[in-house]
Fold this protein.
Amino acid sequence: MEEKNRETPTLIRSDKTEQIKKKDEPWKINIGEIKPNEFYYFPDNSKQKIYVNINSTGGCLETTAYLMYRLLSAKPRVITENMGQCLSGGFFVFICGDERISFKHGLFLFHGGAHNGYRPVSALKDYLDKTTPIIDFTCRRLAKISTKSFSYWNHIVQSDKDVFFTAQELKKIGIVTKIW
């Protein structure tokens, strides 16, 4: 099968928005609430940078994991930008950038995820079986890009608490690479 001609515009769907991307424009993805079965399209082998603008309270962990793996495996340079808040899954996506930029007053939230209380208790084991590798992967990524260890991040997960960070705090430990 032939590769698609890069001269043709490509449709990008993200968070209820559609745009047509022209050949020489960078890829831009806007992320708000991360919903189940919401997919973000961009090429794996483009020479164009991918800009991911995030203003998110988080959402579906499985969709977040899909987006994380796609961004980390993308060939072009990925720039993630905190446009206001990167909470929960929004933070997980933020850390996948090669460059991680935040507004001065950007807010971040890290925690080990949450289980919807309305599900039957038997669903909790299935949920944990699916999410534990995602959380573990996230802690390893955080340890790789920051001055803090895996055990530091894993301790936050195990504490079952929501931990908020400012852009300045995350810049000091290497997660935010630039503040606007």
In short: The beta strands are 10-14, 17-21, 27-31, 50-56, 78-87, 99-102, 107-110, 163-166, 178-179. The helical segments are 61-73, 89-94, 122-145, 150-159, 167-172.
